[in-house]
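To: structure subgroup
Subject: Chain for Friday's discussion

All,

I'm putting the inputs and outputs inline so they're searchable in the archive.
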Amino acid sequence: MTQRRRKFRLRPIHLPMSILLFSLHQGCVSLREEAETLPQPIPITDQTPLKLGLEEAVHFGGQTMQDMKQLLQIRGAQGSIEAGQHLEQMIRKNYRSWTAPRFINAIHLYLLYPSEQPQDLFKMLVQSKHTLAIRMGWHLAAALPTPKIAKAVEDILTEAIVDNTLTPQFVPDMADALVANQLRPLYTVARSGLFATHQSHFAKAMAFLKPDQSRNDFLEYLALASAEELRQLNLTSVDMFTCMEILQQLDKTPPPMNHRNFENLFYFAISRNTGLSTLARNVLKNFIPGENTNLALVLARQPIWVQAAFVEGSRRQLSPKLSLFLRELRDTTSQTDVIQEINTVIQ
């Protein structure tokens, strides 16, 4: 005799509306009470003491900072001088304990109302061994370029080179400071920063400080990536955005063809990254048709797959000038497969 299994169904629980409203009300009260317990900024008025207002602006930012800026406009030049003094004292005292937003707020205000000797604050920050302080110090030097700041930058970096402590200073803002203060004698520092960090800021600084010399050093950097690596989607030896910046600079100031790493431009021209490939081909176009013979000799010395990939990639942007170069390559290369590919492309 078989027994029938009884089916059980879970019935929904219907809570009275009064209970639901009470729970919702209690939740809102808890959130509201929690918000009310958070520190609130004091209103900034004409009567607010300068030091207190600055502390509030650094702590809360936002509207409090805007109100403080308006107050300083009202108080004029003397208020700005006093603000710079107070801000420098606050930064010196609190930079180790401040959270990043407060530190950034303080530097933002200080750049608007600097003290009389900002180079002293710059030196203190970049010598502090505090990561964010170092970056804020270099940001200060980039935003307030003066002869005194330039001298301080030169002193700091010279000392770092002698003491072999340059690496912690390699932040993007340092490169920006070299440009802002036009410190061309420190070009080698920017070059070291590029190879140490792979950051595009240093490439921009090199191009600004010494355009001619940077062409050779840019080719040295591009040579860090092999042809095989550039055929992959991910780059590990170089930074993709830095390479793009370098290729754009080389398009403006073409590199010398007799450089030992000039051939690497062809490797970038066949990269699977469309952006890198296009930029590298733009650089090579500077030598077409005037240097077709020499350019063909460089490409003909490369492995057959590099030559074939370059010819194949030329289909998409074939022009009369590029056709002339491919004909020159056809007459130069010893690779039968490459010759056949060229004939197919230019027919």
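Points worth raising on Friday:
Residues 47-116 form one domain.
The two ends are 89 Å apart (CA to CA).

D.
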